[in-house]
Design brief:
The complex is a heterodimer of chains A (128) and B (294). Chain A is mainly beta and 128 residues long. Chain A has one helix at residues 73-78, and strands at 4-9, 32-44, 49-57, 63-71, 91-98, 105-113, 118-119. Chain B has 5 helices and 13 strands. Classes of the chains: A mainly beta (128), B alpha+beta (294).
Chain lengths: 128, 294
Amino acid sequence: MKTILGLVLCSAVVFAAPAFAHHSAVMFDDQKEVTVKGTIKEFQYTNPHSWLLVDVKNDDGTVTTWGFEAEGPSTLTRAGIRKSDFTPGTEITITGNPMRDGRPAAAWVKATRGDGKEFNPRAGFAIK
Amino acid sequence: MIPRLVLLAALIAAIAATAQPAAPPSPEKQRMTALGIEHKTARALYDHFKKEANGGQALTWRTVPDWTGIWTREASPFFWDPDQASPTALPTAKLTPEHERLLREKLDKVAKGIEFDPLSNCEPAGMPRWLVEPFLKEFVVTPQEVWLINEMQNEVRRVYTDGRDHPSEADAYPLWEGDSIGFWDGDKLVVHTSQMRAGQYQRIQPFYTEQVETVEIWQRTDDATMVVHVWAFDPPALAEPWYTRQVYKRLSNDDASLRIRYWNCGENQNNVVEKTETGTSDFSNFTFTQKDDQ
């Protein structure tokens, strides 16, 4: 199965671009989205940014670990994302704005867990 | 409101090249700006407010206002002035020619994808940028001091309301959060801050110098709203005081899941961001890439 599901140009994502407060988001291409399917390797639920690490099987059978960056725990908590939501081995389909230099990492935009539950880390900035 | 960082080159290029503030300031904003201009310095404006309040009133534990809860800024963190609703507009400050040049130079670099924020080096935002940093805030009031706490980088501003003055000019030196004194005028906290370090109001906002001083008036206007009137004075950078109205909202936290924790900027090596040879930002290391795993 081809687990890198797509790398698409997407002008619509411009206004949902990441708000990374600790560093510029210039290393990510907010005009593109990449979607991969894999299993959770580790959820680094930390400041200043969290990283969700996803093991993705390539067509040749090798595995690439992708990293998806989001804000820290308090913003993710506001988005309804807990550390326990992504335990190792969990299936996930995840979308992000990819690195410009081609490294397997992205700014996390959205994700759907294997059980169908959807997650939007950027909802953590909503005031409610 | 969801903060939005727009790095689309064409938009930023438009800022750098042609943009001007889109709308004239409101009559209220004009009046507040005129008040700043009339008093010439931050200290003179602060003294004016103190005189109007007959010196202010000392708090007791019985009269401490309830500022509890967890708060966050309402507006986009990327604009100092909430009235700057569009990234295609220049900031609303009236800058000196030199600082307008510096701002346009910065925006021009951003348009070319060259951007580095000192926060990436784990520096605090410091005042006055403290006011617009995102994430969580807490405000702790005691009769003698008010602690204004920013989650990010554990930045605490201490506002002394016990009647003390600033250190003498001979003993003053630049501080990340500056030195803040204040008084209470009813339910309003009036603050004067000096001794700040040079910095920037935000990434696509102007720079400020070590001469920057601020006057703030804090007031909780309803259960979920804190309004802060802010005047920034900085003669080398600002052609006139920059008045803005900042608003913080109290977040619902019924399940008590929101808690302000110690913020360690260096706890995850995947977040190490370095300044490249071209002056922009890039991750220096990943531990999860195939290359590193090998």
